[in-house]
Queue: 4 jobs
Job 1
Amino acid sequence: EKKFELYAKAKAVLYIPFDEDYGYITLEAMASSKAVITAKDSGGPLEFVEDYKNGLIAAPDAKEIAGRIDELAQSEVMAQELGAKSKKRLNDRNITWNNVVKELTK
């Protein structure tokens, strides 16, 4: 319940791992209609996040990451638009537990 509350109250989600293999945090954020800020070397999240389409991708540099955070913090409209597109991208890719189980049991 606490995790749902945190996602609900977030303007966006920062997820900047190094070379992550998949990244459920990205999918959870997208399911919550939140834009994801990630880095160019984050790995798996880059399969889902498109720069300025449904999230933001920064160089793995503290100043650039901070700049991307500031961009979303200063624009409620941008955060909402990217978040809505994020959820749509997730839905369009049909990434659900039912679909995953179906694909694994073929």
Note: The mean pLDDT is 94.
Job 2
Amino acid sequence: MKGYSERYEAALRIAAQAHRDQVRKGIQAPYIVHPVHVSAILLRYGFAEDVVIAGLLHDVVEDQNIPLVQIEAQFGLAVATIVAALTEQKSEGDRERPWEVRKQEKLERLQHGSLEVAAVKAADVLHNVHSLQAGLREEGSALWRSFKGSPRRLLQYYRDVAEIVRQWLGAHPLVDELDETIHDLEKTLEAMRVPH
């Protein structure tokens, strides 16, 4: 990817507009920080532009109902396929689906996805864990009121993601960084004696 990309800028505009009213769970930061950081992680690790753009757009369908056909029309099938694989169906009609069911579906899609899907998910979880650590430093165990899953279930979900990602990416430094970060979170939770 060159230093400047019109496609990346177009994706950034869509993501910034789509997430403009959102804030991150637990820490009151603008939501756009998350997808930008995910794309930056992917860029730093040398992934292709389609993967980097998918990282930037990975939550716009799930969180803001941007049509997947719009993503495909503007950025191509490769980007749309990655975004589709990472999009969680949060509700059925007006009922929210159980957290455990949604996360299990994500793990199954990740298992049957692709190297590119695994890379974006690894960057997503890496930034989520760092954000969670920052929130725990700021708010302590009160942070968990913002989350659906318990600390134990969330930590196990992150471990499961890391295991599947390693199957796709092997001994990639992104996976090593993800493993280290999850391990650091586990130590933080133990030190804080956060209830499971």
Note: Residues 136 and 142 are 8 Å apart (CA to CA).
Job 3
Amino acid sequence: EAVTGAAAENEPKAALPVMTNTRRDNSMSEITLDRLPKTLQELQEMPQAALTSPEEVAALTVAALALYPENPSETEKMLDFLRGPRPLNGIDKQFIKDRFRGKEYLMRSYFSGSSPDNNYTPEQPYRIMISENAYSRSQIGEGYLTLYVNCSGADSPRPLKLRNKPSTGQWFLWEQ
């Protein structure tokens, strides 16, 4: 029997993932998530879903992509949200599918503590290192910022390009 009315309001809700953003220096941020969002609704209910910090948008992108092997369609919904007015198209979806084929570990390599030696098993809580380099702001006048995410599966941090919407101050995923 379903619980309704006031009793339903008193039912404990699942806690949302908690994200903290710690700036290590002028060019490096460490984003920590106690757990990863499993649904678009969980992601949208997080305070960072206001999309006002480019580093947090980058971290939400990594968190969304980490869900892909388990739930591709929910990942696509999350990415559509993070992309704002420019949802994934068929080519984007196929590109992501191709990147993950046989490489379910791929997104785990973006979390601190992961390595080939431990099958890319990240430390808990999940930590994502995001940095800028000398070229990150080369297109800032046009509204673009390129951030770099540390990756234990690559020789150098991987780029994420974001676009700012001046009227709202929001940052959206542009290229991953």
Note: The first helix runs from residue 5 to 9.
Job 4
Amino acid sequence: RAALVTPVTSAGTLGRMSLVLLAVHEGVATLTLNNPAERNILTDEMVADMLAAMDEIESNPAVGAIVVAANGPAFCGGAKLESLMNASEEGLGRIYEGFLRIARSELPTIAAVQGPAVGAGMNLALGCDLVVAGERAGFSQIFARRGLSLDFGGSWLLPRLVGMQTAKE
């Protein structure tokens, strides 16, 4: 049986393409990032849709696990740089909340990474309980290549999963 896929949009966003799709099948919710033309980058609008999807998932007692997936060749190309550069402290908090909400979920979470997961996209995957990586998956922390601290919690998430020495490498 196929799952019913529902476009999710946060309040006040009718008329635009849903940046997140939600399907629930046999107790498993699949939250799918749905902006492949922009490599599923985290924007204010996508994060709002992610939060709306998480509200729906966590209010459904039939859901026992969450799979985070993405349409297109990339899992998530990170956060939109313009959003980061122009964001207030409150705005940054909203952007971070997209993956932190998934990381804080009491439900088991699985990242199904089919392509590049970059910066905040890598941290979205790292925030899940389990990461399943396809053959074309790739993980990168762009800020680290520039000698900067990992963005979006990567400096905390990565050592937690792979150990401090491997994270330093």
Note: The radius of gyration is 15 Å.
